[in-house]
Structures are given as structure tokens and as C-alpha cells.
Amino acid sequence: MNFEEFAQINEDFLEMTPTQMIKQIEDTNMGDGEKIAFKMWSKTYPNNGVGEAGLVKRISEYLNVDENTLETLIDVHGGLPDAIQEWGENNLNEEIPIQNVSMCLYAEDREFAYTTYMDLFRIMTALERKWLTAFILKKTRNGTDDAVVKKMISKCYGFKPSELKKASNFLSMDELITKVIDEGSIEFTPTAGRFMKPMLAKGGTINVRNRRWCDYKYDGIRAQIHNGEDGITIFNRKGDDITNKYILDLIPNLMEICDPVDWIIDGEIYPIDTDGNPAEFKNIMSRIHGKTDEVIYRNPVVFKAFDCLMYGGQPVYDSNLDTRLDTLKLHFDETILAETTEINNQDEMNEYYNKAIEAGFEGVIVKDPNMSYAFGSRSKGWLKFKPPMVDIDCVITNATLGAGKRKGLFGSYEIAIRDDDGLIPFGSVGSGFTDDDLIMITAAYKELGANRIIIEVKGDMITKNENGDYGLRFPRYVKYRDDKDEPTHMKELKI
Q: pLDDT tens across 61-79, in order?
């Protein structure tokens, strides 16, 4: 498949529903370009540092137009890809294999990516230029995402959606696509060192009527820790390798107290004060964003394990929670084990909940002892209970510059949550931020722009005005959620 054909498919997608898109791919023979196409639609290629400003500079020089002129076209047409398409056709129109474009997207460094982009740009049609630009900026806006690609694979290769969903908990989209097309299989063998999507807790009302396990709800970073042939690796909730942020404290401690066999444990890393008590979440931000050891290790942290997925190379995630907890207690030092107690009724849960709050934790997680570990699922087997306050994850849609001591920084942010049709505005938030929070979020917003940053916001209640607009009463910023890709969905709120 050449890139002109692929670009036309993407252009057609703009007028299609997901169902129509899937049907078109089912009926289209993409030949040896199919794997690359699926990977491009899933955006499995890395962020190589190419940005719109850099493209505008280079395109302006090549077309011999002022950058301001191109910026005006961008504003008029709603984005750089569409502005480029409107600029006109290139008469060279050489046939370009889709593999050549893939080389640009998977470039190892930014300068090579820019060079390859411009080499392609010079010989492309306007339509090809549009979609090359859209893909390198990851701003395709044509409805293609992981969910749609999985459905395409299901239709084209005969795998059940449930099979693909399960496999995607163990395999990245890149690995999943490769195995399907190259091997015709999605078999997988979980191993130490390979991230697996963690099980998540649901919120809501909890009525304890029989035996359950109850954990403290820690306010920190979810951590899946692996020990294998390459040593200890720490993954966050999204699967990012964050090991290098804990080289000087957690890693040596784990190496000293844990057996030198293959194991995988699940838990939370949270900040503590000088007395060992839970500290504010903001204290762990230096671990996330720090660049030097002085900043990274500014505040102490601890790790607490609350589940075991593998020990001695033998998976235990299919076993019930009782067995997994027994494995933890038998093979791991009690100093890294989470505070877990057995409860049998609502009164016992309330007592443990009050103990958790008094100790400075967020709340509790109530767990079914009979359930196996449900990878990638927000399961009813784990129910979280926190103080009765509205707590939602919001995407920042706009920002307003502050005044006074906030001059030069964005001081308030318009926020939104999601429903099936898109984003729903949910008012704005301008309180709860420290100076460091504002510096960090201002920098992130300038780099990423609108609809790319998720923050946690809490309020006393959800409000709705006479125009039907939603908001929060007394909204306060809680923390930056770079561990999440999607804001809270409307259906999760009881409105």
C-alpha cells in the first residue's frame, strides 16, 4: 500500500461512524501495509519530540512564506494538517510506500524525524502532507484509536473481542498487532519484567455482610514491582518504567529483604513525613518530575504491597485473594506489607475506616477474598470507600493567567469530564494550588495544550445552574494525574 491510498482512507474516515470504518477495512486489501496502518492508527510510535512550532518553522522556510501567514492559516482552518492541505498540490506526486512514512514516525531522535518529514513533504501531494502531519503530531481526529483497531482486528482476523481485551492486559498494542499479523496468534506468557494492567477499585456504597479483607487506601503512586533476570523494575499504573526514581532508597531495600527469585507484587508508593506518617500527595511530585537526585529524593517515600501476582516464576493471579495474601505473608518481609485486616460486618469496616482516616490515609479498600486478580478491570471485587465528597478527574480545557503573586502563571483552569458524546464543561478551579503546583501545571499546559492534562478536583457537591451547566461547589485542586489518560465519565457520577 502506498501512502496516498492510506491518506485517502483516513480522509474517508472523517465522514464515517466507527462501524463504517471497521466495515471499510474489513473489505479493503491493504497488503503488506496493514500492520503499519494498524500501528499508526493506534499511535504506537514514540513521542520523538517533534512539535507544531518546529514543523511550522521548517514548512514556512520551504514554502517561502512568513510564519505568521502560516499561523493565520492554521487558525482559519483549525489546525496545521488542514492548513497544509489547503495550501495546494505538489506536482511531483511520487508514489511513496507507507513504510517510508513509518520510518519518519519511528525516528530515534527529533532532528532525524524533522529531516525525514521534510524529505517526504517535498514529494507529497497536499492530502499526503496533511496526514503525514496529523500522524507525526498525533492529532488525527478521525476516530481511530485502540478500541477501533481492536474491532478491526476482530473482524479481519476472527478473534473474539473478549480474547483481544484479555490479551491487551498483558501485551502492548504494538505487540498485539505484531502477534496477530505475523503469528496469527495472541497467546502470551506473563513474565517478570513485562507490565500487566493492574486491577482497579470501584467506588460506591459498601455494605459488608460476610467475610472480606480491608486495606488502607494509600494516597500515592500505584506501583507494580517486578524482580527478574534484569533485576528489580518498578512500573506505574500506566506501565511507565519509573525505576530510576527509586534507585537510592526503595530498590536497595527491596533487594535486601526480598528473595532473589522471579516475583511480581502490586502496591502503592506514598510520601511520608519525618515521623513515618502519610504526607500530602504533593510531596511525591518531586519523584515524578524531578531531574536531579537532590530534587528526586527531597521527600521520603515508602512502598506497601497489597497483592502478589507471581512468586518463584509461578503465577498466582488466578488464585483467590486468600491465597495471594498468604503468598505475600510467607515470602515477603512484613515491613513492606500493606495494613490488611479481616472484617465480617459493617461495624468492623466502619471501625477500620475510622482508624485509617485517623492515621492520615484516604480511606479503605474492601476486597472479596474469593476473587482472582482481574487485570485491567475496575472490579466489584475491590470497593473503595472515602469521605463523602465529590472527587473527580477532570481534563483542563482552558487556562487563565493569574494576577499578583500568580502573575506569569495560569491561576485558574476550566475543566471538563467525559460522556459518550465528548467533553462536558464542569466549571473551573482556582484554589488548592501551591506555588509549585502552579509552576508545574503552567509548564505542562504550555507544552501540551488544552484537553491533554488531567487533574483531580474535589468539591462539596455537584451543582447545576438554570442553563443546565454543571460545576462543583467549592472546587479545590487535589493533584496532577499524569497516571491517567481519561477524565471521569459522566455515568460514574450519581446525578
A: 998 888 898 889 888 888 9
CA distance 306 to 310: 13
Q: Would you say 230 and 193 are in contact if contact means Cβ atoms under 8 Å apart?
A: yes
Tell me which residues of the chain have a pLDDT lower than 70: 88-93, 387-388, 495
Q: Return the residue matching grid coordinates 471499510.
A: 24
Radius of gyration of the chain (CA): 25
Convert the pLDDT of each residue in 75-118 to its tens digit. Answer: 888 899 999 888 766 656 678 999 999 999 999 889 999 999 99
458 phi, psi to nearest 5 deg: -120, 155
142, 86 Cβ separation under 8 angstroms: no
The Cα 301–Cα 282 span in angstroms is: 12
The secondary structure of the chain in percent helix, strand, coil, rounded to multiples of 5, reads 40, 25, 35
What nine digits make up the cell of 204?
460506591
Cα–Cα dist 31/261, whole Å:
45
The alpha helices in 78-183, defined as continuous H runs, are 80-87, 98-105, 110-121, 126-136, 146-157, 161-167, 173-178
Q: In angstroms, how far is CA 89 from the centroid of its own chain?
A: 38
Could you tell me which of 265, 202, 197 has the C-alpha nearest to residue 228? 265
What does the alpha-carbon distance between residue 201 and residue 195 come to, in Å, rounded to a whole number? 19
| Beta-bridge partners for 228 | 231
Cα distances from 487 to residues 106, 284, 415, in angstroms, run 28, 21, 10
Nine cell digits for residue 242: 519509573
Residue 100 phi/psi, 5-degree rounding, is: -65, -40
The SS3 assignment for 410 reads strand
Report CA torsion sign: 357, 358, 360, 366: negative
All three cell numbers of 303: 512502598
Cα distance between residue 116 and residue 110, in whole Å: 10
Type of residue found at 307: D
Q: Any idea what DSSP says for residue 309?
A: E
Residue-level pLDDT at 93: 64
- Residue showing cell 483516513: 10
DSSP string, 9-46: HHHHHTT--HHHHHHHHHT---GGGHHHHHHHHHT-S-
CA distance 477 to 280: 13
CATH numbers and ranges of domains, the chain: 3-136 (1.10.3260.10), 200-385 (3.30.470.30), 390-492 (2.40.50.140)
Q: Which secondary-structure segment (H or E) carries 310?
A: strand 301-311
The reply to whether the predicted model has a pTM over 0.90 is no
